[in-house]
Amino acid sequence: MKKIKFGILEVGVPPSELEEAHGSYPDMFKTLLNQAVKSFLNLDFEFQYFQVLDGDIPSDPSLCDAWLITGSKFGVYEAHVWIEPLSSLVKSCYQQDVPMIGICFGHQLIAQALGGKVIKSNKGWSLGVQEYRLEQQPSWLQDTQDVFSIQAYHQDQVVELPENTQILASSEFCPLAALNFNDRAISFQGHPEFDPHYTKKLLCSRRDMQLLPIELSNQAIDLVNTPIQRELVAKWICQFLEFKLSSANSSHI
């Protein structure tokens, strides 16, 4: 089995008081995906982390076989020096058909880089367990179910799609909650990497610092142990990567 080099572009860090116990965001993805990949015969990940906020931004898509962009406290529409080079990498990956996964900020950045629009939504915060409807079943998507839930933590939303992009999942609050960029990239507004323990600590910490609405935070904390399907979403990510990497190998035979 060939090792798949999987680059994780780290654009956010957990609060310092939580990172020691729960790890970095790339660590969370590594744990989640290593568990999911056990049922896939053709996938075996070799993870490489890139600290984007420190200027570690690759320019060559072929440096890794696939990429994942994490969540972040920043907005994709903000004027940070690393936004443009990271967007350039997204465009190059798309053009060269190197698979990408976007999570929360990553979901928004891929959409914006490819011609979509992201705003700070006037709907406010989405916190804790959120339910989404599956709107599309691409050829690579197995183990489907009509509705799934994962943790969420965002204000910003994608409000306009790039060309050749399909809605993978939606909710009333977040109509463009998961996207399929013409089978070249997929993205999720929610956080499959967040387990209930981390989410509860994050919500409590940010509520107590008055960074989140109190009433909404309390409601999310009360419901944080509602069953979620983070492992299912991880399988979907693996199914997408297996499809892309198998197709790429077949084209070279």
Could you explain how this protein is built, in words?
The structure is a single chain. This protein is an alpha/beta fold. It has one domain (4-140, 153-195, 229-251): Rossmann fold (3-Layer(aba) Sandwich), CATH 3.40.50.880. The chain has 7 helices and 11 strands. It has helices at residues 16-22, 25-36, 83-96, 105-113, 196-208, 214-222, 230-251; strands at 4-10, 45-51, 66-69, 100-103, 117-120, 126-134, 147-154, 156-160, 166-170, 178-180, 185-188. The strands form 2 sheets. A 9-stranded mixed β-sheet has the order 2-1-3-4-11-10-9-6-7, sandwiched between helices. Strands 5-8 form a two-stranded antiparallel sheet. The longest helix has 22 residues, at 230-251. It is globular. The model has no long low-confidence stretch (mean pLDDT 95).
Order of helices and strands: EHHEEHEHEEEEEEEHHH
> Reading side by side through the largest sheet, how are the strands ordered?
2-1-3-4-11-10-9-6-7
**Average pLDDT metric:** 95
- The CATH architecture term is 3-Layer(aba) Sandwich
Strand pairing plus helix content: what structural class? alpha/beta
Give the helix tally: 7
> Strand count, sense and closure of the main sheet?
9 strands, mixed
Name given to the CATH homologous superfamily? Class I glutamine amidotransferase (GATase) domain
Low-confidence region ranges: none
- What is the total number of structural domains? 1
How many individual β-strands? 11
Large-scale geometry? globular
**Strand proportion:** 15-25%
Distance between the termini: 17 Å
> For the CA atoms, what is the radius of gyration?
17 Å
Q: Level of helix content?
A: 25-40%
CATH topology: Rossmann fold
The CATH class label is Alpha Beta
